[in-house]
Amino acid sequence: MNLDLSKIPSHVAVIMDGNGRWAKAQGKNRLFGHKTGVKAVQKIVQESARLGIKNLTLYAFSTENWKRPEQEVTILMTLLVSSLKKELKQMTENNILFNTIGDLSKLPGPVQKELKYTIEQTQNNSGMKLTLALNYGGKEELTQAFKEIAHKVKNNIISPENVDETIINKHLYTRNLPDVDLLIRTSGEERISNFLLWKIAYAELYFTEILWPEFNESHLHLAIHNYQKRERRFGKTSEQLNA
To answer: The pTM is what?
Structure first.
């Protein structure tokens, strides 16, 4: 499949779904699914950087994921730390800038420490920005932003008349990220699951039946190819775009 490299989406976001179901289908436990899912992340990160995608945002752990069994949450956090340690060299060699969004204060101490270290070690890289959404929820992000804005309005730091999209954006976890061009969700589920609610206002949505551990470079190409065939009007008509 030939992709038009002049029309590569600038910001691709992925809801990585299906680790547990994939493992169950293999007769394995959920841990096996999560470990295999990490390998899929490695493939997609490298291929995204190679294609020239400027921003890749992965939904790694939502605010709702704390409801999962304690043992599974512990395993996910342990996997995160080990993956960061293992992939730091690759990120450095591929000039990848590592970033996070979400309320990191509620993550275990060792996880916060490793995240901070990885961010510091890659902060001067100028290639693709890889963002992990951790303890992240779209509604929670907006709620925190509105609270901060309300506090500033109350203290006459911001005038109510000046509250606009730009002001709101400056108070989001995602303030340093552009709007999402392409949102991919694996596993056949067709919902947003509280992910990047502000940034996906005009994103193209792509749903695939492929479970995340099986999602590979060719599947990414297919999603981008589908994206490139779409007409992005942003409220305008086709005639206006053609003119």
So the answer is: 0.94
Q: Indicate the burial class of 54 (C-beta count within 10 angstroms; 0-12, 13-18, 19 or more).
A: middle
* CB-CB contact of 203 with 181 (8 Å): yes
Which residues are known catalytic residues? 17, 65
Q: Which amino acid is at 100?
A: T
Cα(41)–Cα(37) distance, integer angstroms: 6
Closest of 5, 96, 113, 9 to residue 49, by C-alpha: 96
Per-residue pLDDT reduced to its tens digit, 18-41 = 999 999 999 999 999 999 999 999
* Separation between Cα atoms, residue 157 and residue 147, nearest integer Å: 13
Residue 58: strand pairing partners: 14, 132
Q: DSSP letter at 155?
A: T
In angstroms, the CA 103 to CA 120 distance is: 18
pLDDT of residue 11: 98
Are residues 213 and 18 in contact, defined by beta-carbon separation less than 8 angstroms?
Answer: yes
Cα separation, 99 vs 122, in Å, equals: 9
* CA dist., res. 97 & res. 84, Å (int): 13
**Count of alpha carbons within 13 Å of 229, Cβ hemisphere only?**
9
Helix axis angle for 30-51 and 70-93, nearest 10°, is: 30
Which conformational region is residue 58 in: left (phi greater than 0), alpha (psi within -120 to 50 degrees), or beta?
A: beta
User: Which residue do the tokens 């450095």 mark?
Assistant: 92
Q: Which residues of the chain have pLDDT under 50?
A: none
Q: How confident is the model at residue 236, as a pLDDT? A: 64
Q: What pLDDT is stored for residue 113 in this prediction?
A: 97
CB 103, CB 140: distance < 8 Å? yes
